[in-house]
Amino acid sequence: MDEVGLTKAELAELSNQQQRQRQRFNSEAERLIRVAQAHYRKSEPDHYPCLSRSQWGEMFSQGYGCDYRIWHLALCLDCVQTAWGLGSNGSSIREKPRLELQVRP
After folding, report:
1. pTM of the model
2. Looking at the structure, do residues 2 and 28 belong to the same domain, yes or no?
């Protein structure tokens, strides 16, 4: 498989879409993340399972923020949203974390 990358025109169009249609753009980005995660979830080692809300809360309250299980968050949108909902003090936060595609460095 050859990697072709994105042209400057394609990058400009992505950036324009992100600015003009933020909600639709973010919904499509979330859909694509879930497609990629489906592949990741099939190859994920057994020691990186999804944790329940209470398990994430317990891990964070005990100060295990650098625990190997934290790496799971980088690859699981559902768990990111669960952990985000805990907030820094364990209280429930209703807002969803924003996904922002950085088109340019």
Report:
1. 0.58
2. yes
